[in-house]
């Protein structure tokens, strides 16, 4: 089955998704936000902010429309049409506006009778027509949800939409919600098939604007990392859902943690916040250049949790290109800053290597670190310390990228 691919891999989109429709996948229908907010003017203004406030230059190039953009009925020809009051200029005009600013437009669809918000869905007989409609409008990315559809319809419809999008001749990034409706894990979910038809996919529940929601997603992804980590790579990504940094549910430390953990997961960076009113601190987190460089690393290897301490400290590692690595030290504690002591040797780095260590959030070089050296980091409650390690000297013996390990085996940094 063909995969809808963008012009240049790896595809790991960075974008703005507005508005943020909170719902439970396949379980209930939520009301959309007020029509006066969810309108074309909002997207015009967000496109301006992406283009003018430094986001585009960092790679945040997609602006995505969520559910509830369409009229309640298809037109006489059976085509989807935008709500005439909220999008009076039409989606094509919005796409033209976005493209003129060097950006790309994403849109929402649903493989079912209705969308999760109760708007017209894409049934199997509408797949080709809707793909042609999106392409004619100049859409660059499609998220296809799965409310009001059966497992059998999803098994037919998601691959069929991939073929239909390819047939249009327009590069359209394809985001599938298919695995989220099937529990996210084998045997119901076949990640080899998903990687052939989708560029990214939602595996698990929708994120809510709360720290508890972030932790539940982190727990699910890293508990199941032996299945999920090998499935990710250039052009086909696990999607733990949006970044809620800049909204109301996360503290400063928790915001830094979500950004770091999503980066370790090689997650698409999909913001859901108002760029017209975003705080300087949230903007600084989302625009961290080294963080984005790590997130977009061309090897596309998803990181893993390699340590889980009784002290509620966890360590995550992501292998990067040029023999570099990203380490995240994460505290689940809520009482006070914690002094955590370890060594690269204990984290299974190769013997006799020396690394230059850079603090990702501080932006400064910490110093040179030998594998055998003990070191300490101070991690704030619900916070992270994130390091970028670049090798200064490596051992002579060859090392290889460890992409897949059986449960219980060690995970080693990538040295290529």
TrEMBL record:
InterPro entries found in the cross-reference section: Aldolase_TIM, GH, Glyco_hydro_27, Glyco_hydro_27/36_CS, Glyco_hydro_b, Melibiase/NAGA_C
GO molecular function: alpha-galactosidase activity; alpha-N-acetylgalactosaminidase activity
Catalytic reaction list: a globoside IV3GalNAc-Gb4Cer + H2O = N-acetyl-alpha-D-galactosamine + a globoside Gb4Cer; a neolactoside IV(3)-alpha-GalNAc,IV(2)-alpha-Fuc-nLc4Cer(d18:1(4E)) + H2O = a neolactoside IV(2)-alpha-Fuc-nLc4Cer(d18:1(4E)) + N-acetyl-alpha-D-galactosamine; a neolactoside IV(3)-alpha-GalNAc,IV(2)-alpha-Fuc-nLc4Cer(d18:0) + H2O = a neolactoside IV(2)-alpha-Fuc-nLc4Cer(d18:0) + N-acetyl-alpha-D-galactosamine; Cleavage of non-reducing alpha-(1->3)-N-acetylgalactosamine residues from human blood group A and AB mucin glycoproteins, Forssman hapten and blood group A lacto series glycolipids
Subcellular location field: Lysosome
EC class name: hydrolase
Ranges of residues in domain Alpha galactosidase A C-terminal: 300-383
Cellular compartments per GO CC: lysosome; membrane
UniProt cross-references to SUPFAM superfamilies, sorted A to Z: (Trans)glycosidases (SSF51445), Glycosyl hydrolase domain (SSF51011)
Keyword presence, Ubl conjugation: no
Pfam families referenced in this protein's UniProt entry, alphabetically: Melibiase_2, Melibiase_2_C
EC number(s) stated in the UniProt entry for this protein: 3.2.1.-
Chief subcellular location: other
PROSITE patterns reported in the protein's UniProt record: ALPHA_GALACTOSIDASE
The keyword Lipid biosynthesis appears for this protein: no
Role description: Removes terminal alpha-N-acetylgalactosamine residues from glycolipids and glycopeptides. Required for the breakdown of glycolipids.
Subunit structure: Homodimer.
Protein known as: Alpha-galactosidase
Species of the source: Geospiza fortis
